Amino acid sequence: GRRLVAPVLHDGALRWRTVEAGETITLDAGNTSDSPKAMLLPQTEGMMRFGRACGHYADGHSSTPEETPTVLLGVRPCDAHSFLMLDRVFLEGRFRDAYYAARRKNTLVIVLACARPRSTCFCHALNGGPYDHLGADLFMRDAGDAYLIEPVTEQGREVFRELADRLSPVDEAHRAAAAEIEDRAMQRLRPVKPVAGIKKVLQGLFDSPVWAEIAEKCVACGTCTYLCPGCHCFTIEDRLRARDGERMRAWDSCMYPTFTLHASGHNPRPDQAARWRQRTMHKFAYLPENVGMYGCVGCGRCIQACPVRLDIRDVIRRVREVADQAVDGHGEAKA
Question: Tell me: the pLDDT tens digits for 48-78?
Fold first, then answer.
């Protein structure tokens, strides 16, 4: 059987949970407060165990990731988009992450279109949209009193065939209702300038004082990085016991001073300005350069949760303004 993971109201918040008997799945309350990233990249996971003999730790063996087939039901398009970016980071290039790969291979992604985008959503500025199919195996649309579902990938088509006898044919009334809901969803999106071209803008701002300006009110809590579906920085540590030990991987945050602290005491990013520069450059310059995708999908979680209301959309606008001012100052025309 498959493990079902879906949005469930828990302690007053809509969160991703393995659905247990008696729990109610909530699909009509907007996006979750956390992202489903943890289903592919757990916040903490064991990587290997090792024993101790004669005062030395040895005989290590890898911890095999859980192989249980998993269905993620109700993933929003922005989060599904982030899976594709994580795939490029963890599955392509010189190094393939076996732990991520094992979970990804056994995960079916059922995407639910966003019928009611929030004011903080800006997926449409980042090559996405509330009805985007990217990253979906099966795609669902709200049709009022029903959901319309269509397969997108071969894995999705296999599951669709399994469900065929439980599904009803789509009638014109439901098609019309779904189209009307989609139109309303698109109208809810706030106008926002696409981030296209931001990589070139950022390349000239590495030493700009704008980063100190942006970081001035940041309290380095790291909330933005933990809620972001695209952030994937981690740390590895060995937990040692008397007779054995375990190597663990856990999420980390580039917003923390200790993230880049060297054993020598030197820190190449000594202040929050340097950390904000790294966060912005990584998402909008380095990742596009290295994997061909932005590290931000416009889900808006960081905007909603930031205790000092530091809005990533304002950051993008501000760096554009500073870049334009720098160009004007050299007597050149704006691009």
Answer: 888 876 556 666 667 777 678 999 999 999 9
Tens-digit pLDDT profile for residues 101-130: 999 999 999 999 999 999 999 999 999 999
Tens digit of each residue's pLDDT (9 = 90 or more) over 190-219: 998 889 999 999 989 999 999 999 999 999
Percent of the chain with pLDDT over 90: 81
C-alpha dihedral, 278 to 102 to 84 to 69, nearest 10°: -130
pLDDT tens column, 278-324: 999 999 999 999 999 999 999 999 999 999 999 999 999 999 999 98
Full 3-state SS string of 105-155: HCEEEEEECCCCCCCCCCHHHCCCCCCCCCCCCEEEEECCCCEEEEECCHH
Count CB-CB contacts under 10 A for residue 163. 11
Q: How far is CA 198 from the centre of its chain?
A: 20
- Can you state the percent helix, strand and coil of the chain, rounding each to 5? 35, 20, 40
How many CA within 13 A on the CB side of residue 237?
A: 9
Length of the chain: 335
Contact 41, 108 (CB under 8 A): no
**Helical segments of 189-271, H only:** 198-203, 210-215, 223-227
Q: Judge contact between 98 and 135, C-beta under 8 A.
A: no
SS3 247: strand
Global model pTM greater than 0.90: yes
User: Among 281, 280, 257, 252, which residue's Cα sits nearest to residue 269?
Assistant: 257
- Count the Cβ atoms, other than its own, within 10 Å of residue 77: 26
CA distance 208 to 133: 38
Instruction: Write out the H or E segment, with its range, that includes residue 263.
Output: none
- CA nearest neighbour of 188 among 129, 127, 110: 129
